[in-house]
Design goal:
single chain; 202 residues; alpha/beta; 6-stranded parallel beta sheet
């Protein structure tokens, strides 16, 4: 068992991000076994869950004529327009049936505000609206976070970068993540993670 000061943060292992889902990440279901095994090593486990309303502003379908994966400008900056995914209450938003959820003490739902997308487990994409995760971890004396899940280059990377900026020791286990890799986003994300002092392990 890892020290009490360490926590495992499992990012968005949901049906829509796994093969057959609306925004499937290639090999997304291959990380279930390693994540489930890792849970046994941590006394604190947190799950995050993308949880969008159907009218979310990050969905291409809500921008007439816009193609999925194109960019638009939001008040908080550039935003990728995604295929409609993880609409709350749908099967796509549910955790993958193969993911152990019983070990989790907390589930952070993000992206539920219609006008702001949310990649990070700590902040929505305006970089100001907090999810409450930081306060929860500090109250439990957590100082080191290990990140796994989907997708490496978006929600995992944003979460780990925010963890580092908030003063946590942050590790990403790449073998328990999979990437979208949109226009070189994986290489950019791993470079940014290394530059921020995040440890990348296989």
């Amino acid at each position: 068992m890892r020290p009490q000061t360490e926590a495992l943060i499992v990012i968005d292992v949901q049906n829509d991000f796994c093969p057959g889902g609306a925004l499937a990440v290639a090999g997304g279901d291959q990380i279930l076994a390693p994540i489930n095994a890792l849970m046994d090593q941590f006394s604190t486990v947190v799950l995050t869950q993308d949880w969008h309303p159907a009218d979310h502003s990050s969905f291409a379908d809500n921008h007439p004529g816009a193609a999925p994966f194109s960019l638009t400008d939001m008040p908080y900056g550039p935003q990728v327009l995604w295929p409609t995914h993880c609409v709350h209450g749908t099967k796509g938003a549910a955790f993958h049936a193969g993911l152990k959820t019983d070990p989790a003490q907390l589930i952070i739902r993000k992206g539920f505000r219609p006008q702001i997308d949310s990649y990070s487990a700590f902040f929505e994409n305006d970089r100001k609206t907090a999810t409450g995760l930081d306060g929860y971890l500090r109250n439990r004396g957590i100082t080191h976070l290990t990140f796994v899940g989907l997708a490496t280059d978006y929600c995992v990377a944003y979460s780990a970068l925010d963890a580092a900026s908030l003063g946590y020791q942050a590790t990403v286990i790449l073998g328990a993540c999979r990437a979208i890799d949109l226009n070189g986003s994986l290489a950019a994300a791993t470079a940014n993670l290394r530059a921020a002092g995040v440890v990348l392990n296989d």
